[in-house]
Amino acid sequence: MSSLLQVRVTGILIEDERILLVKQSVSSERGWSLPGGRVEQGETLEEAMIREMEEETGLVTKVTKLLYLCDKPDSSPSLLHITFLLERLEGEIRLPTNEFDLNPIGDVVMVPIADLANHGFSEKFMTIVQRGFPESGSYQGLKRNIGL
User: Fold this and answer.
1) Which of 48, 86, 98, 120 lies at a CB distance of 3.0 to 4.6 Å from 11, suitable for a disulfide?
2) How many domains does the chain have?
3) What's this model's pTM, rounded to 2 decimal places?
4) C-alpha distances out from residue 143 to 7, 40, 61, 147, Å
5) By residue range, what is the domain housing residue 68?
């Protein structure tokens, strides 16, 4: 039995009622995602989130709040998914180089929160964002419990 566990961080950046998304294949139903990725050996969660955000979007950010901790045990290896609220410190949105990415990012955009469903996100997730992340800072069980 394997004891591997993948840890992934996801960042939510909201400015002027708009949320930052990256165009990247998530599933057959969804071609847009929140910025984020795998935590590398020796990184803190915060370091991984800041690195992923800058790599994927060109923005320098800081973590302002832990939103949710979720499981995705059906992934291989199992996945621990941690979502943070971020604040932009500097930078302009740009496309990443994608030079080492097997799942390249095709676009980086700020979209109105009300348009999340039009970008393949669940109504449940859109409602959570619109309500200001109720129960933030908590363990939510399965990732689908927050609509992701």
Assistant:
1) 86
2) 1
3) 0.90
4) 13, 21, 24, 7
5) 5-135
Helix (H) or strand (E) holding 6: strand 5-15
Q: What is the CATH number of the domain that holds 25?
A: 3.90.79.10
What value does the mean pLDDT take over residues 19-45?
88
* 72-128 pLDDT per residue, tens: 988 888 999 999 999 999 999 998 776 566 677 889 999 999 999 999 999 999 999
**pLDDT tens string 101-111:** 667 788 999 99
Q: Which residues does 49 contact at the CB level (< 8 Å), separation at least 6?
A: 9, 11, 36, 61, 63, 84, 86
pLDDT computed for residue 112 by the predictor: 98
Of the candidates 46, 79, 51, the residue with the CA atom closest to the CA atom of residue 65: 46
Element (H, E) at 90: strand 78-90
